[in-house]
Amino acid sequence: MALMQCDFYSETLGVSVSMNVILPQRTTTQIGMASASSGEARHPVLYLLHGLSDDHTIWLRRTSIERYVASLGIAVVMPAVGRSFYANMKQGYNYWDFISEELPALARSFFPISDKREDNFAAGLSMGGYGAFKLALSHPDRFTAAASLSGALDARFFIEQNKEEASRIFGSASDFNGSGNDLFELAKQRAAEGNDRLPLLYQCCGTEDFLYDDNARFRDEALELGLPLTYEEGPGEHEWGYWDRQIQRVLNWLPLTKKES
Question: Most C-beta atoms within 10 A of its C-beta, which of 111, 194, 254, 260?
Answer without folding.
Answer: 254
